[in-house]
Amino acid sequence: MRGAPLIEALVALGALLLLALPIRELTARSRSKPAPAVQAAPDRSVRLEITGTASAFEFNVSYLGREIWSGTGHQAPSHADFKLPVPKEGIDLEVSARFPDASLHALRLTFSTGDGIGIERSAWGTDTLDEVLTYQPAP
Amino acid sequence: MRFALLVCCCLLVSKPAGRAEAGFRVASFSTVLSEVAERVGGEHVTVAALVKPGIDPHEYQPTPGDLAQASDARLILISGKGLENYLDKIEQVTGGKVEVLAVGDQLPSLTLRPGDQTGSAGAPALDPHWWNSVPNMIRAAGVVADGFARLDPAHAADYERNASAYRADLSALDKELRRKITQLPRDRRILVTSHDAFQYFAATYGFTIASIEGVSTETEPSNKHVSELIEEIKRRGVKAIFLESTLNPKVSREITRETGATIGGTLYADGLGEADAATYAGMMRHNVDTIVDGLK
To answer: Which of A13, B90, B236, B253 has its CA 20 to 30 A from that of B60?
Structure first.
């Protein structure tokens, strides 16, 4: 004796629908994990010292896109102290300067941390200067 | 037989008659070098840009029409460092009568990282993606200018003047990119990309890199490599990973699901693209903006 095909089909469909939810839960990809926490480098005491070949020049220094120091530099060194996040990979400082005339001038920016180790970087320019100076500890 | 067919095809694809062209013809198999040739050659050079923007140069194979244009040229520009695996076809069609200038071969090289393919006789293969460093492009302008001057000494001064102007633009671009990158602390300069195309970029701008595939886009990453990469991304807290304009993003998206990193955007690794990446400066600005904004 043959059963009613329509009823059999409906029973099969019902069974599939009942199984659909647990199968989906088992086979679905895991949800996205939360974004990884990025640990900021610890703040360290930093001293910057600037000197130049011009008797007076305007300068500013930026770190991570933010101006941290500006003023008038001279042939005699000027310095300022900061608390900055300094990763072991080193830092980049963006330095801009405006010199009093169009002849070739240089400036030197020294970076030192509390451990007394100083790293010197120099840049040259005529009239104006805009450089990125990189300070990396010796390996 | 195959060679005879190729030659026949080349002969059938004839150059349009009566087209007015300036100076000598250069065929370029690199989107980036097409720009260099146009800027350096100026009015004295007609450039046939055979590899179009958005084409993956690792998978590109020249058509009979491309080979016909190459054999019509006086100079063929290629990226070099082993990128073009179809050099033999060019040489067959040109019969060695057209000079091939492999620009990258005259620039400093980085070798592929361990695990990537090796060159002939087991020697480390060279990374061919030299254009992702602006200082390399500055050098490339000089290489192309020298090549043009050798073929056309009457206009050597023009080529050098054009190259100087182009180099000045590239130097300004390099400074602009460096300023943008200073917004990113050095400990966050970790670049995870689809394939290993950013070693020169990383060396120039202070990044470390981890790639999903090797240097070629033709190989699939192994499960072991992907697992190690996921662990590294978690360990170093990488915020974003980057897709590439010519590659399938499937594995990258899987990695973001496992690590919680986001997709930082799409980079142009293998040459110029469309819209804002249609020029070299635009391509580099797009890449640097995408990377810095993604990792900040």
So the answer is: B253
